[in-house]
Specification:
Blueprint lengths: L1 H7 L13 H34 L2 H51 L2
Helix pairs in contact: 2-3
Length: about 110
Amino acid sequence: MLLYIINKNMINWSNIRNFNNPGNEDLVNSINEQKLEQKRIMEIFNEKMKVFATERSFESSLDILNIAIQLSNIRGNLVKSFEQYSRNLEEEIMKLNRIIDRKNHNNGDL
């Protein structure tokens, strides 16, 4: 009985078309590229920190500062991208909720 109720309220996911649109794919690709760039910059940052820890020179401190600024910019861009992605997911959830509400309303009329 419970299985029937669950299946009766299931959504046909093939009807949800817009979430896999090219804009979302571009956003996901951008996020993945930024994550790779962040990983690369972190490796450089760790190397430069080792140099700074041994040298403690003005030049090595500027190198660390430069890398830290780059890392900050990448992370800022990642935050913006994740915020956009979460807004897109929220829109999809709202669409699904409307579909569920319509389906429940139509089932209630029977």
